[in-house]
Specification:
By secondary structure, the protein is an alpha+beta fold. It is built from two helices and 13 strands.
């Protein structure tokens, strides 16, 4: 009987662990402006183009690793970081693919769906909001690290925690993504090869 009770308790704990996960609502806590805009007057980040908004898991090192050209196919994240989800919001605001709607200042105009996952490893996430399509020289907002609650039960309703990004929270806007030194060297060699080719053609 004692073994049966212990076994049932273990199964119950496993079931609870399996049902827990991550629940995060993506919101802005302040409006965002495009690169070169006035933080007090605009223009809004969606006035002249779309944005790519990423939710990124910081990995086992619990650190934000820089965006790199080498990892362009992997959401531009480096190290052990992982893009959990990305949403694209069109120019002038409007409706994103997940059904949420936004205005040109990237302020939500409708209830924002929560990101839900059964990930149960304690850790941190952060966000990047790119102005336009991520590319070499792209400008983006980057949030601070956020320790998420691993006890959230997916499907149980809106998470209690809200992970926000925006100028109102003092986040640094317009951080520029640059190629790694190795990439710069390759670009430099390519440019040199072109110059030499033209020289010898003459």
């Amino acid at each position: 009987m004692k073994k049966y009770v212990v076994s049932m308790a273990i199964l119950a704990m496993m079931a609870m662990g399996a049902s827990a996960g991550v629940g995060i609502i993506w919101r802005t806590q302040g409006w965002m402006v495009e690169h070169g805009g006035d933080l007090d007057a605009g223009p809004g980040i969606l006035e002249d183009g779309s944005v790519i908004w990423q939710l990124i898991y910081a990995g086992a090192d619990n650190a934000i690793n820089k965006a790199t050209l080498e990892n362009a196919g992997n959401g531009w994240v480096s190290g052990d970081d992982e893009v959990w989800m990305a949403r694209e919001i069109p120019k002038d605001g409007g409706t994103a693919a997940d059904g949420s709607s936004w205005d040109k200042w990237l302020i939500d105009a409708s209830p924002v769906p929560a990101y839900e996952d059964d990930w149960t490893t304690p850790g941190f996430v952060y966000q990047r909001v790119y102005q336009g399509t991520p590319a070499v020289g792209s400008w983006y907002y980057e949030s601070e690290l956020f320790a998420y609650d691993t006890g959230y039960v997916p499907g149980s309703g809106a998470p209690a925690e809200t992970f926000a990004i925006g100028t109102g929270g003092g986040f640094e806007p317009n951080m520029q993504m640059v190629p790694e030194p190795a990439t710069m060297s390759l670009l430099g060699l390519g440019a040199l090869a072109m110059v030499l080719r033209r020289k010898f053609r003459k």
